[in-house]
Design a protein that fits this description.
- By secondary structure, this protein is an alpha/beta fold.
- Helix 1 (61-71) runs parallel beside helix 2 (94-104).
- It has 7 helices and 10 strands.
- The strands form 2 sheets. The protein has an 8-stranded mixed β-sheet with strand order 1-2-5-6-7-8-9-10. A two-stranded parallel sheet has the order 3-4.
Length: 241
């Protein structure tokens, strides 16, 4: 897929990021409707978009770096976080962009991923381009994975779980996890917490979606009961962010 010649604004912020503090957010996909390997039921961008599982250059490095440079000069900006309109690892040039940011600045660089590509050898070997990675885990079984994350047909839950395990072993930076609670995965919180415990993340972020259909949302009482299953893992809940 060819890079877009005149991309939309792909850098925004500063945002308050629980993993990097005051940070610049970078979207290396830059598409509306979204282009992603998942179509999660709680996605803030809605359900419309393109389902992809092949990596490509969407936005050239120099365009990303130019927009980042315009935003990150403040002394109170602590880092750069890749996230946005699709899994950041779909952008095949994300690692070169991350390294160029680190060469030009002492700020930390993080990435938030849905893990659909995390197990690919070309991704695993480049993870140390980042200081922080945040991996998403919203299910403990294939059925719930399909129901909540609605992945590209080529992606299985076992592949995602294997990718998380491999990344945990090979990545030398701060490894963090993120769990989003919805009606469809409420019954699996005990097993999801067991998997998180197995991965020993440095931090775990517990999230409730804000901009999804109310039919997917849970009550405060249900959320509190679910979060108690994670009590022995270093956690930051949505109320702490």
């Amino acid at each position: 897929m060819a890079a877009r010649k005149e991309p939309m604004k792909i850098v925004y912020g500063p945002i308050i990021s629980p993993c990097l503090g005051k940070a610049i957010a970078v979207d290396p996909i830059g598409r509306h409707p979204k282009a992603c390997s998942f179509n999660c039921v709680y996605c803030r961008l809605g359900s419309h978009g393109i389902m992809l599982h092949e990596r490509a250059v969407f936005i050239e490095d120099d365009i990303m770096l130019e927009q980042i440079g315009e935003c990150e000069h403040g002394d109170d900006c602590c880092g750069v976080l890749f996230k946005g309109t699709g899994d950041p690892f779909l952008a095949s040039n994300i690692f070169s962009a991350a390294r160029k940011i680190k060469e030009a600045s002492s700020k930390k660089v993080g990435v938030m991923t849905n893990c659909s590509l995390l197990g690919q050898p070309e991704v695993l070997k480049e993870l140390d381009a980042f200081d922080v990675i945040i991996v998403k885990l919203d299910a403990a079984t294939e059925g719930t994975f399909q129901m909540v994350n609605r992945p590209h047909p080529s992606i299985s839950f076992s592949d995602v779980l294997s990718g998380i395990r491999e990344a945990r072993l090979s990545f030398h930076g701060s490894f963090r996890m993120r769990v989003t609670l919805v009606r469809e995965n409420l019954h699996e919180m005990g097993e999801i917490s067991r998997i998180c415990r197995e991965m020993c993340p440095d931090y775990l972020y517990l999230n409730l979606p804000e901009l999804c259909d109310p039919s997917h949302q849970v009550s405060k009482r249900e959320a509190q009961a679910a979060w108690e299953k994670f009590n022995d893992i270093p956690c930051i809940s949505q109320s702490d962010m």
